[in-house]
From TrEMBL:
Residues 20-168 form the Phosphomannose isomerase type I catalytic domain. The active site is at R308. It catalyses: D-mannose 6-phosphate = D-fructose 6-phosphate. Its cofactor is Zn(2+). Isomerase that catalyzes the interconversion of fructose-6-P and mannose-6-P and has a critical role in the supply of D-mannose derivatives required for many eukaryotic glycosylation reactions. It comes from Lepisosteus oculatus. Zn(2+) binds at Q124, H126, E151, H289. NCBIfam families: manA. Its main location: cytoplasm. The lineage of its organism: Eukaryota, Metazoa, Chordata, Craniata, Vertebrata. This is Mannose-6-phosphate isomerase.
Length: 436
């Protein structure tokens, strides 16, 4: 079906434009990504575009769905004059929705991603808006954006990460059972942490002291201690002894990926969190974290700012990280971010974090359904098909769009899209938007 462009009221007057169209999105081949078709990113690319070629030796780490300058999505419709999504939004800012347009100065406020993680990402945190602006002004090469970067990860496969500081009792237990870890923290800081249990104010202060002492430890000292620890864990494992008291399996894995890296000791401070498909983690400003393995949907404020301090060959800024972190111990279970089923649509599960920049909907359409309507929201959105096939039609599209696994669709604010399902297995979709 081919239609004439529809007319809509936008901020610059009455104009005609296609408000729903498919996108071709940027791929980031970072070294930590899963390789070739082991990567969910690569699988989605091939499924979405039968002409795409995947290099079996190349890592496919991230699919960027948005308008960030480092990876602005291309518009897959040559009848639209603008080449990229960023250019199109700049010419049609009303497509963002009036509240979003005004709040975020005519910019798409979020960046939507798929990640496929093979090697651990860096021990990191993201700055709040004030710190982001200051870091960007002082060190623009290392901090390319002046925006904050809260983010949320939703597991597509079992997904493993480190997130937030462990309960203080667990950290104290590791200080007792892992002498090499204790050596880096030091007797004074370790005793201070142990004596602070039960007093939240003192815990935070003591935890900061312990973590900062470790992260600033002289390199020769921590490398020697790490080598001793790895040797001991390997010997214990070979003798059939239980190494869980030293978090042995994860220690050996991280050391094999980043030998001699101080970040290997972070496992004694940070929670190890495993998400099942559909479960999520929200990472606000100053929350220490690292992704370890798996595939996930990720949504974040439109920024590329990261403060790193270990498990990375990239720029490390230990002092900034240690000063900015929230030293708030909490159990791993508290890091699971819950979604809520939409009371008006049983197919929609909403992940709505406590930031204005983004929300994500998981849309699970049952196999028996022949048709489904994506309800309009007062925000531009990006839709990713993870499973199933459909034909998408909208009064705001130039023509119907064939959707399959890997397809990405931009939907302007307040536009509805009818999906005519083409496969009996139902569909799984993720939709990023901004629900102010």
């Amino acid at each position: 079906t081919v239609r004439a462009p529809q007319c809509s009221w936008l901020s610059n007057g009455r104009v005609c434009f296609s408000a729903v169209f498919p996108l071709s999105c940027a791929v980031q081949n970072y070294a930590w990504g899963k390789v070739g078709l082991d990567s969910e990113v690569a699988k989605l690319i091939v499924s979405g575009d039968p002409l795409a070629v995947v290099d079996s030796d190349e890592p496919y780490a991230e699919l960027w769905m948005g308008a960030h300058p480092k990876g602005d999505a291309l518009i897959k419709d040559n009848r639209i004059s603008q080449r990229t999504l960023g250019q199109w939004i700049a010419d049609n800012p009303g497509s963002l929705g009036s509240k979003v347009k005004d709040t975020f100065q005519g910019q798409l406020p979020f960046l939507f991603k798929v990640l496929s993680v093979r090697l651990a990402l860096s021990i990191q945190a993201h700055p709040n808006k004030e710190l982001a602006a200051r870091l960007h002004a002082q060190f623009p090469d290392h901090y390319p954006d002046n925006n904050h970067k809260p983010e949320m990860a939703i597991a597509l496969t079992p997904f493993e990460g480190l997130c937030g500081f462990r309960p203080v009792e667990e950290i104290v237990s590791f200080l007792k059972s892992v002498p090499e870890f204790h050596a880096l923290v030091g007797n004074e800081a370790a005793e201070e942490l142990q004596s602070s249990v039960g007093d939240p104010g003192r815990v935070s202060e003591a935890l900061k002291k312990c973590f900062t002492r470790m992260m600033n430890c002289e390199k020769k000292v921590f490398v020697d201690q790490l080598n001793m620890l790895v040797k001991r864990v390997l010997e214990d494992a070979a003798a059939g002894k239980d190494t869980s008291g030293s978090n042995g399996d994860l220690l050996l894995r991280l050391h094999s990926q980043f030998p001699g890296d101080i970040g290997c000791f972070s496992i004694y401070f940070l929670n190890r969190v495993t998400l099942e498909p559909g479960e999520a983690m929200f990472l606000g400003a100053s929350e220490p974290h690292a992704y370890l393995y798996g595939d996930c949907i990720e949504c974040m404020a439109c920024s590329d700012n990261t403060v790193r301090a270990g498990l990375t060959p990239k720029y490390i800024d230990v002092n900034t990280l240690c000063e900015m972190l929230h030293y708030s111990p909490a159990p791993a279970s508290s890091k699971i971010f819950s979604c809520v089923q939409d009371p008006s649509d049983p197919c929609v599960f909403l992940y709505d974090p406590p930031v204005p920049d983004f929300s994500v909907m998981r849309i699970q359409i049952p196999g028996a359904a022949k048709q489904y309507t994506l309800a309009p929201v007062d925000s531009a959105g990006i839709l990713l098909v993870v499973q199933g096939e459909a034909t998408a039609s909208s009064a705001a599209a130039l023509s119907d769009v064939a959707l399959r696994r890997g397809s990405v669709l931009f939907v302007s604010a307040n536009e509805s899209v009818a999906l005519h399902l083409g496969s009996p297995g139902g569909m799984l979709l993720f939709r990023a938007c901004c629900l102010l």
